[in-house]
């Protein structure tokens, strides 16, 4: 009988990172990995080592630092991929190699050009090979939900016999619906004779908005590992959202009779961290982690909540970490208190960075009466060295008003210390500013998205700006905050622009065809 605890396999750093604009640097991946460890996920999929040297190094770094959680590296069912994953996981306390091979007819015919028997043989042989390098092997028949069920059962049986201890059933293109997906999993439990020797996992994409529902249906049918991402980020419409699936299992334990090991109070911090790093904002009405998830607008609801909370609330906001926002420090706080608070927020920094962050904090405390955790986090993200600082905005100036042509001037310093000035006019001050920056950086980027929101409440709240830029096939997001929204707009643009320039330079250095990432 399947166990009554669900293994939470987090793939934010692999599948999540593959969504456009969500790429993370190694330092950022380490921040997320630490938070996932604090949240007590069971497995962290840290990346796809053969995909690029950067991916390899990031998996290696996570594998070397994270001791309490199993760390997985993805590999196609090819020796060179498996060797590369094993090398990246060499110093890992609890390594797992995740091998995948597509099994559906569409993928066999058009992508792999292989017959069923060839796929079966390759899958089993590569699991046997991977087992010579690592004890814990997971196998995924990619596009399982569109694979002929009898063939899928044969593949699952073969890879378990070959030594896979977890077999993951992906709904790669988010095509399945809950009753059907549940039946697919139940069918495997019925038809695969050795199924009790492995944990059956599911990995659902959200193309029809059903990733969480499909995962839960699979759990009812016996699946005991769920693959998910923080905020549901991932290829296309994303993956099963970690916070939703975990809280569904916790809140409806009466119905599922199953637990997870997740420290649920770390959910909101994890959500904010991932959204902060990727610049991918969480929609306001998103379940569990959206800003409106626990706010009650209707008078009848507010009245009910005041009388008895459970009238309109099925979860306690504090149980998922919503009570963390505190007035932390003021103008007179010292460096030691500031550093301690930074560490509590998950940022461990060397002395040099603490000094820079502390200076920014003092400047902010002069401009803003109340400094909250979110304000501190905003400062820390901007200081993080992982943001490539190829160009620094030394100063800017904008002119706008009724009857005036909006104009901007910027002074930007490059890494060699050379300064250049750019000026431009635009439809508004922000447009003019962005045109001026583009001129200096010779970037010609398209502004795909621009969003602004208040970080905390009150008239003196920091304005947080998130931009999405595209050029030369790359998309990057940038984020910055300031009590002055023009300043936040300029810094968010510089953040994204620096990432874009750094990626374009990297492509010039490593022009080889990238291995297509897997969703
Ligand atoms: O969606 C998918 O099929 C995947 C596999 C690599 C597990 O991400
Ligand atoms: Zn996927």
Provide a count of the helices: 17
CATH architecture label name of the largest domain: Alpha-Beta Barrel
| Alpha-carbon distance between the two ends | 30 Å
Rg is 24 Å
Indicate how many domains the architecture comprises. Answer: 4
Could you tell me the CATH topology label of the largest domain.
TIM Barrel
Main β-sheet description: 8 strands, parallel, barrel
Strand content: 15-25%
Number of DSSP E strands? 17
- Trace the largest sheet across and list its strands: 1-2-3-4-5-6-7-8
How would you characterize this protein structure?
Helix 1 packs parallel to helix 2 (53-65) and helix 6 crosses helix 7. The longest helix has 25 residues, at 485-509. The protein is an alpha/beta fold. Helix 8 (211-220) links the parallel strand 7 and strand 8. It has helices spanning 26-38, 53-65, 79-88, 105-112, 116-133, 149-162, 178-191, 211-220, 242-251, 253-256, 267-278, 299-307, 335-344, 351-367, 373-383, 429-441, 485-509, and strands at 5-10, 43-47, 70-76, 95-102, 137-142, 166-171, 199-204, 225-228, 259-260, 327-329, 371-372, 391-399, 407-414, 419-425, 446-454, 463-471, 474-482. The strands form four sheets. It has an eight-stranded parallel beta barrel with strand order 1-2-3-4-5-6-7-8, surrounded by eight helices. A three-stranded antiparallel sheet has the order 12-13-14. It has a three-stranded antiparallel sheet with strand order 15-16-17. The protein is 41% helix and 20% strand. The model has no long low-confidence stretch (mean pLDDT 90). It has four domains: 7-278, TIM Barrel (Alpha-Beta Barrel), CATH 3.20.20; 294-321, no CATH class; 326-382; 391-505, 2-Layer Sandwich (Double Stranded RNA Binding Domain), CATH 3.30.160.270. It has 17 helices and 17 strands. Bound molecules: 3-methyl-2-oxobutanoic acid and zinc ion. The site of zinc ion has 7 residues, from loops. Residues 15, 100, 140, 142, 168, 170, 172, 203, 205, 518-519 line the site of 3-methyl-2-oxobutanoic acid.
């Amino acid at each position: 009988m399947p166990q009554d605890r669900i293994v939470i396999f987090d793939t934010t750093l692999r599948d999540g990172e593959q969504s456009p604009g969500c790429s993370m640097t190694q330092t950022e991946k380490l921040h997320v990995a630490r938070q996932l460890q604090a949240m007590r996920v069971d497995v962290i999929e840290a990346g796809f080592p053969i995909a690029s040297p950067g991916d390899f190094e990031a998996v290696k770094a996570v594998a070397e630092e994270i001791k309490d959680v199993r760390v997985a590296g993805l590999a196609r069912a090819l020796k060179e991929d498996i060797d590369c994953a094993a090398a990246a996981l060499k110093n890992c306390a609890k390594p797992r190699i995740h091998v995948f091979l597509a099994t559906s007819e569409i993928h066999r015919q058009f992508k792999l050009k292989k017959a069923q028997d060839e796929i079966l043989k390759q899958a089993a042989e590569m699991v046997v090979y991977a087992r010579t390098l690592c004890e814990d092997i997971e196998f995924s028949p990619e596009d399982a939900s569109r694979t002929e069920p009898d063939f899928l059962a044969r593949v699952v049986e073969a890879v378990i016999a070959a030594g896979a201890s977890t077999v993951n059933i992906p709904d790669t293109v988010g095509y399945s619906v809950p009753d059907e997906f549940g039946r697919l999993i139940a069918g495997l439990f019925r038809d695969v004779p050795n199924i009790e020797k492995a944990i059956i996992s599911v990995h659902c994409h959200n193309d029809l908005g059903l990733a969480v529902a499909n995962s839960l249906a699979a759990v009812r049918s016996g699946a005991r590992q769920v693959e998910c991402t923080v905020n549901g980020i991932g290829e296309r419409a994303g993956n099963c959202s970690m916070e939703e699936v975990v809280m569904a299992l916790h809140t409806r334990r009466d119905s599922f009779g199953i637990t997870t090991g997740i420290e649920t109070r770390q959910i909101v911090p994890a959500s904010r961290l991932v959204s902060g790093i990727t610049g991918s904002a969480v929609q306001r009405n998103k379940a569990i982690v959206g800003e409106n998830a626990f706010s009650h607008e209707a008078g009848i609801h507010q009245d009910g909540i005041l009388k008895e909370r459970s009238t309109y609330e099925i979860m306690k906001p504090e149980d998922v970490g919503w009570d963390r926002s505190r007035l932390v420090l003021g103008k007179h706080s010292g460096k030691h208190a500031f550093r301690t608070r930074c560490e509590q927020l998950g940022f461990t920094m060397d002395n040099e960075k603490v000094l820079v962050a502390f200076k920014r904090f003092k400047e902010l405390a002069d401009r803003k009466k109340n400094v909250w955790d979110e304000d501190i986090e905003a400062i820390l993200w901007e200081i993080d060295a992982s943001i490539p600082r190829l160009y620094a905005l030394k100063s800017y100036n904008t002119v706008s008003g009724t009857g005036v042509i909006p104009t901007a001037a910027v002074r930007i310093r490059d890494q060699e210390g050379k300064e250049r000035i750019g000026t431009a006019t635009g439809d508004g001050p922000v447009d003019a500013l962005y045109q001026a920056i583009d001129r200096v950086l010779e970037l010609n980027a398209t502004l795909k998205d621009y969003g602004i929101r208040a970080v905390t409440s009150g008239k003196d709240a920091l304005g947080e700006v998130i931009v999405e830029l595209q050029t030369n096939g790359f998309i990057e997001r940038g984020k910055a905050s300031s009590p002055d929204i023009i300043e936040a707009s300029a810094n968010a643009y510089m953040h994204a622009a620096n990432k874009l320039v750094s990626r374009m330079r990297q492509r010039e250095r490593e022009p080889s065809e990238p291995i297509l990432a897997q969703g």
